[in-house]
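Notes from the 1:1 (GR / supervisor)

We went over the backlog. Supervisor wanted to see one worked example end to end before approving the batch request, so GR pasted a single chain during the call. The sequence is below; no edits were made to it. Supervisor asked that the structure be written out right there so they could see what the output format looks like.
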Amino acid sequence: MKDIIDKNPVIAIIRNISDSDILPYMMSLYHAGLRCFEISISHGNAIEQIHNMKQAMPEDTLIGAGTVLDVQAAEKVLAVGADFILSPSTNAAVLEYCKENMVRLLPGVMTPTDVSVCQEYGFSTLKLFPAGELPMNYNKSLKGPFPGTSYVAVGGVTPQNAIDYFSHGYCGVGIGSALVNKKDLKEKNWDKITEDVKQFYQKLCGQLKEEKVS
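Structure output shown during the call:
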């Protein structure tokens, strides 16, 4: 997963978007510069949406399946073409399955025990969730005993505070509903969404380049 996150520091989290809106919505984000998406399977038609978006989106789009809680769900999303899997938790069966089948997985962690279990199965790029409920530098507390780990902040991340997570050492962020203006989404203002997200993403990428140089 680290190679994906290094190239795509922002994962756009897609949840509860209708079948009629999901393609124009994802394309509006694609035109803004985003290439990495998570479609959460916590709602009814998401697995079919993953399949449809893998067919419809440009070839350089990466589509992961989120909220994968067990092996059965993992098998289903991989069968429809998911490029990677995200989980809000540390499930040993899912970790073992992904390790054995060389599946890219971003497992959810919050405690040192979670991190230790993930490392047992060879996973070191981890999703800190819910990041917004924890101190901004919480990842550094985990990196102390686990220096080989990297963290993607998910939960409570917004375009306004995203750079703060990177400044505190996170390698990536996942942003859900906060990514776009709710009114623009409701009114299907796709061009406005593209404009706003492009402005955010370009500014963020510029700031990240400046931090690397310094």
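Supervisor's comment: The domain at 2-213 is CATH 3.20.20.70 (TIM Barrel).
Batch request approved.
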